[in-house]
Amino acid sequence: MNAESLPVLEQHLLSALSSPPQEIRRLFHGRGRCWPGLEQLTVDWLQNQLLVSLFKEPDQAFLSELRAMLARMTETEQWQASGAVSMLLHYRDRDGSPLECLWGVINDYPQVKENGHSYQLDLGRKQNNGLFLDMRNGRQWVHDNAKGMKVLNLFAYTCGFSVAAIAGGADSVVNLDMARAALERGRESHRLNGHNLNQVRFLGHDLFKSWGKVRKLGPYDMVIIDPPTFQKGSFALTRDYRKILRRLPELLTEEGLVLACVNDPYLTSDFLIDEMNEEAPDLKFSERLPNPPEFEDINPESSLKAMVFRR
Questions:
Q1: What is the C-alpha separation between 110 and 44, in angstroms, rounded?
Q2: Per-domain residue ranges for the chain?
Q3: 3-107 CATH fold
Q4: At what angle are helices 6-17 and 60-73 packed, to 10 degrees?
Q5: CA–CA distance, 184 with 177 (Å, rounded to integer)
Q6: SS3 content of the chain, % helix, strand, coil (to 5)
Q7: Which of 46, 108, 123, 303 is 20 to 30 A away from residue 248, measured at CA?
Q8: Residue 301 DSSP code
C-alpha cells in the first residue's frame, strides 16, 4: 500500500459521504485493483458506522498517514452531517482480526438493511461481519425468484439468502452450515424481519456427511451453493465443488434452479460451466448475475461469479 494514494481515497470518501447511502453499502473497493496503492483496503458504510478494513498489514508510514487522513475526515462538514456514530479500523491480517474504534462509540451488533431487508451483523470478533456485500444482487435474485419454492441454501453462513428467499415468498428454506454460531445469527436476522421460523430449518452439519438428511428434506425447487474457497479440514473448492454438483439431479425438482457461486480470483466463470457440464449435464447455464457497480474490478473474472443454471 502506498501513502501517496491516500488523497484519492480521502476525496472518494468525502464525495460518498456528502450523500450517504440509506442502506449498508461498500463505499470504496480497493480489492478490485482499480486504485493503485490501495489494493488491500476497503471501506464499508454500515448505515451509521464507517468500517475501514485492511486486508494486509501496512507499513508504519502508511498506517500513520491513513490514521491522520481519517482524523481529518471527522472534522469535515460531510462527516458531521452524515449521521455517523463511529469510525472503525479493522486489521483483518492480524491474529484475531482486531477492530479499533478511531472515533465515536462502536455498536458491536448493528442491525442493517439491504434491499429493504434487515440483517444482524457481528463486528470485531472475526474477519467477516456476517454479510458479504458483493452478493447483494444475488440475494435480490433469490428474492425475485423464490416465490412458492422449496429452497436449499448450502454453506449458508448467516443465512442471507434465506432471509431474501422467505421475504420473496418461498414456502420453505433449509440452511446448512458447519458453523452453528453463524446459523444462530441467521435465525436472528429472520426474527428481525418478522418471518415465520416454522418455514426455516437450520442444520449445523458437515454437508459431505449429511447427504441422506439433505435429500430426505427435498426435492428442492432452488439450490444455492456459495462455498468458501478453502475451509481447513472440510472443503477445498477445486477438489470438492464437483462432489456437490453431481448430487444436484437427485436434489432438484424437474424444473429446478441453481445459483452456483465462486469468489476465487484465480478461477473464471468457465470453471463452473465446465464442472456443471461434466457432473450435471442436464443443468444448463442461463446467466451470470452482475456484481454491484461499487465492486468494480480491473478483471471481471477475478471478482465474484454468481451463475444461474436451469434444469
A1: 13
A2: 3-107, 133-310
A3: Transcription Regulator spoIIAA (3.30.750)
A4: 30
A5: 11
A6: 35, 25, 35
A7: 303
A8: G
Cα distance from N-terminal residue to C-terminal residue, the chain = 46
Query: Cβ-count burial of 199 within 10 angstroms (0-12 exposed, 13-18 middle, 19+ buried)?
Result: middle
pLDDT (0 to 100) of residue 230: 62
Task: Give the number of C-alpha atoms closer than 13 A to the C-alpha of residue 241, restricted to the C-beta side.
Answer: 23
pLDDT of amino acid 124: 75
pLDDT of residue 232: 64
**Interatomic CA distance for residues 171 and 87, integer angstroms:** 40
Superfamily of domain 133-310 in CATH is Vaccinia Virus protein VP39 (3.40.50.150)
User: What CA–CA distance (Å, rounded) separates 50 from 59?
Assistant: 22
Q: How far from 27 is each of 35, 56, 71, 180, CA to CA, in Å?
A: 13, 19, 18, 30
Mark the ranges of the chain whose per-residue pLDDT is less than 70.
Answer: 230-234
- In DSSP terms, 54 is beta-bridged to 41, 91
CB count in 10 Å sphere of residue 67 = 14
Which phi and psi (to 5°) does residue 112 adopt?
A: -125, 165
With residue 307 as reference, give the H or E element that holds it. strand 305-310
CA-wise closest residue to 221 among 291, 279, 169: 169
What values do phi and psi take at 277, rounded to 5? -60, -35
